[in-house]
Amino acid sequence: MDLIFHEKQEGCLCAQHCLNALLQGSYFTAVDLATLGQQMDEQERERMAENGVDSEEYRNFLQQPSGNMDDSGYFSVQVIASALNVWNLELVPYNSTEPRALTAQNAPHEMQAYICNYHDHWFTIRRLGRQWFNLNSMLTGPQLISDTYLSIYLAQLQHEGYSIFVVFGNFPDCQAHEMLLLQPAVQVSQPQMVKINKQQGYRLGSGSDDPDLERALRLSMGQGSHNESNQSGSKSDEEEDSDLQRALQESVMESSGMIPTLSSQKVIQDQLSRGNEDEDLQQALQLSLQQENISTESDLKKAIEMSMECIDSDTIAGTSNSNLEEIRRRRLKYLEKSQPKNAS
């Protein structure tokens, strides 16, 4: 893991960190990206001037700020793509119908790298050796992700609003890739979120001014939003992020051979408890049916007795009281003897 190149977040330079993590080296600086942004601004100005420098459209264009960069360190996807063209690398939208994108959708683990963007925050997911790593600059270090849950991770990022691009081409040689082919990495401990000083003017959501972006950043780091959900009381968000969190934990266990964590054991216990609840419910239903049958048999017996009493009173009105009681006693005795047979 120490051989993997990873830059921690500095100011608003996530685009620089993203590119260097992708290429696995200090290939670009903020000055380099700013130069590319200025070149693209100039190219756009020249195209607009073709319609006349005195046109209202051209004057409005000059008054607008650059769409490729700003003073905070933001760079557009066009600048990212232009920087990758230097290395003959190409970006293709993950959710497009381009044939290579469809291949990535069907088999995400067979690709080489992904670049993800949300609210101007950029980060890289790359395969090194035969393993996948989340190289988000908002993490204190690389995060290992297994092939099994890579597709789940990408799907969840899309659900949260991330734009995902597949990177195609031949990457520069790097020592980490060669070493990880020989000796796969083991995640000893999970990386933590980098703390950014709000006074730095970090426009990419390091503060709490943009809760949606903060949640998405935590999601991109596999942390979910358990604490946020507890505060807001949003059960659906908690369930969605906890599913991803469990998937990422299982991903780490699968890749490193770790034993199940307490959270994964709790999930298993919850499933077992649901099964026990179902068995208890079946037993309760069976008891209620048995009680209903017993009650029905008792009511039937009483009804027969009452009907016989009514018949007796009508048909043997002239019989003495002693003879009447004898007849009733014999009939009740007969019913008691015949009742087990009917029940069986």
UniProtKB/TrEMBL annotation:
Residues 1-182 form the Josephin domain. GO terms for cellular component: nucleus. It is found in: Nucleus. SMART domains: Josephin, UIM. Pfam families: Josephin (PF02099), UIM (PF02809). The active site is at residues 14, 121, 136. GO terms for molecular function: cysteine-type deubiquitinase activity. InterPro entries: Ataxin-3, Josephin, UIM_dom. GO terms for biological process: protein deubiquitination; proteolysis. Residues 221-264 are annotated as: Disordered. It is an enzyme of class 3 (hydrolase). Residues 222-233 have a biased composition (Polar residues). It catalyses: Thiol-dependent hydrolysis of ester, thioester, amide, peptide and isopeptide bonds formed by the C-terminal Gly of ubiquitin (a 76-residue protein attached to proteins as an intracellular targeting signal). It comes from the Eukaryota. Keywords: Hydrolase, Nucleus, Protease, Thiol protease, Transcription, Transcription regulation, Ubl conjugation pathway. Its EC number is 3.4.19.12. This is ubiquitinyl hydrolase 1. It comes from Frankliniella fusca.
